[in-house]
């Protein structure tokens, strides 16, 4: 029976809920906005299935990729609408064209992030782009298994822990399944995201959200939240309070700081992400519309990628990790995390984050000292 005593021991993949033959496990949301399984012991038959599918209780071994590429979708329009190189869309379009089904994360009508599936190329648009919020898997593992059993090709995309949960839930390899995970920094609280939206929209109805708006370029991406007739939020990610709090580790899920699936342990066929550091490593391949990092982890992944008409160059795993440490490394828990959540019931997210983040801004004295130091260095040359 699944019993959570330490919240770091649950990644929220919901595999246990979906496998339970008695349906006696339900996800309950805590005060931070994260969901955890709760078992009705009176109905539990102690079959052990929930424990066998848990990716934390059954952590995989680290795996280095077979091949690593910097890659781009030749369609600039698709790449502009994608987080990085637009390779997910190419993989997904191939799956749909072969009669398959694609699973991914999208915004619902309340601008929450949920997992869903589509059988059409038009439906893929909702899955493009990063969503810096934990998605709810719901019953999508069950649906994926049904399509696989029916002989349909399935592409399932998600965070490493979600792919690990799917693999444990399925219990075996399927020749008609392609799993694609992302290089994941961590997943923020859905409750914090909802509060941020409520505080931002000022009664305006949201019509569009892009958490990786590339209007000013791939490396200088911004946050865009459109309302009717005008943007509600349009600012660089580096200046956006929600993104700054996320990157300062103020409201990521506790398990993200001890990830059971990072470093190839998810069992995915392909890992995709941004090829950060490409400017220094392969300047000839730089593109303002984005460059994707592709890590091929299985022969199945190699087969699928080889069929795509991408623009790519082969690189090394060491180069990829040098610019994107989240491939292997967990982020440390912020010393300010508890303070953030303690203040949340009675405060605005913007105010709490600003107060905390101000501690990390360089003081005028330090800035002046740095300028003087650099000036002295130049004089001594």
Can you walk through the features of this model?
The chain has an eight-stranded mixed β-sheet with strand order 5-4-6-7-11-12-3-13, sandwiched between helices. A three-stranded antiparallel β-sheet has the order 8-9-10, with no helix packed on it. It contains 14 helices and 13 strands. The N and C termini lie far apart (68 Å). The chain is globular and about 65 Å long. Helices cover 31% and strands 20% of the residues. The model has no long low-confidence stretch (mean pLDDT 94). It has 381 residues and is α+β, with helices and mostly antiparallel strands. The chain has helices at 15-19, 49-53, 76-81, 87-97, 140-149, 160-170, 190-201, 241-247, 278-281, 299-306, 317-323, 337-343, 349-357, 364-380, and strands at residues 25-29, 35-39, 67-72, 101-107, 113-118, 154-158, 177-182, 206-213, 222-227, 231-236, 270-274, 292-296, 311-315. Strand 9 and strand 10 (231-236) form a beta hairpin.
